[in-house]
Design brief:
290 residues; Jelly Rolls; 2 domains; three-stranded antiparallel β-sheet; Transcriptional regulator; transcription regulation; DNA-binding
């Protein structure tokens, strides 16, 4: 069993944070992102056999020898954390200098068309990522003026490698031009930024300089949920997170998510979750749902 380990780099000038986790107690509870003072992205490297992972209360199977990117504020619990290594970073650490979108915080790995995205590794990939694990670990023990930039360089290498592998494994990226795929990604990014206040497709279409019909056609071509469904699903996910992980009332959540009144929010929740708010809270509190 791996020994528990947490190594961390903090950058005082930018509030940048980079953390490396391993060990069987580090992936329990509500997810590594919860204790962080700022939104933080995560790469999880499963070095062992396939295992279950619950992400925002939905169970998935993580393949053996694979990588899983997770965006900030996701909650997750793994079945066998002793087989995992995770690297976490916030925007201030890696994206403050606006890295190219494909290998940054708003890139394909975090705002592509498939989530969660399990990236399978072959033997050579496993060897390379394992080597990188050792380099990260060594670098995190150093303390000099080069440490931050070296960690950013190493992280960028991992992101580029993971992006290449993910695109090879994603049929849509082999069949359709980057322009259409980027439209999906940019739409998802805009929704992430504005879903608490903007609930209409027209807002996002205007921001992208596209007609709503054009968006609908591209989403249909790539067999994605409709643009309006993307908005509804994101609002619903955030509502469930508030209900499950906070003590906020339905009224408070309604205003947090941009609804005119609690009754409107209640109708929205029941229509899209299939149960009313009180039923959801009751089920979330039972052992069977954990």
């Amino acid at each position: 069993m791996n020994q528990k380990m947490v190594r961390q780099y903090l950058e005082e000038t930018t509030n940048g944070c980079f953390v490396m986790h391993s060990g069987n107690s580090l992936f329990s509870g509500q997810g590594l992102s919860n204790p962080a003072p700022h939104p933080i992205n995560t790469f999880v490297f499963n070095k062992g056999a396939e295992q279950s992972v619950v992400i925002d209360e939905i169970p998935y199977t993580m393949p053996a020898q694979s990588i899983l990117p997770l965006v900030s504020n996701q909650h997750f619990v793994f079945e066998h954390p002793e087989a995992l290594v995770a690297w976490q970073f916030n925007r201030e650490f890696y994206c403050i200098v606006n890295h190219d979108a494909e290998v940054g915080c708003v890139g394909f790995l975090f705002y592509g068309i498939h989530h969660p995205m399990f990236i399978r590794l072959d033997a050579a990939d496993v060897s390379d990522i394992t080597y990188m694990e050792g380099v990260f670990s060594t670098e995190l023990m150093l303390r000099d003026n080069f440490q931050g930039e070296m960690l950013r360089t190493l992280l960028k290498r991992v992101i580029i490698k993971a992006t290449r592998m993910a695109k090879q494994q994603c049929e849509s990226y082999r069949l359709f031009p980057d322009e259409k795929m980027d439209l999906i990604r940019n739409y998802a990014l805009l929704v992430e930024m504005h879903f608490r206040r903007e609930h209409e497709v027209s807002f996002y279409a205007d921001a992208l300089n596209k007609a709503p019909k054009t968006l609908s056609n591209v989403f249909a071509l790539l067999k994605q949920p409709t643009p309006s469904t993307v908005i509804r699903n994101r609002i619903l996910l955030e509502a469930k997170r508030y209900l499950h992980y906070t003590d906020k009332s339905a009224k408070e959540i309604a205003y947090e998510l941009g609804f005119e009144n609690p009754a409107h929010f209640s109708r929205f929740f029941k229509a899209n979750a299939g149960k009313n708010i009180s039923e959801f809270i009751k089920k979330s509190c039972t052992p069977a749902s954990l």
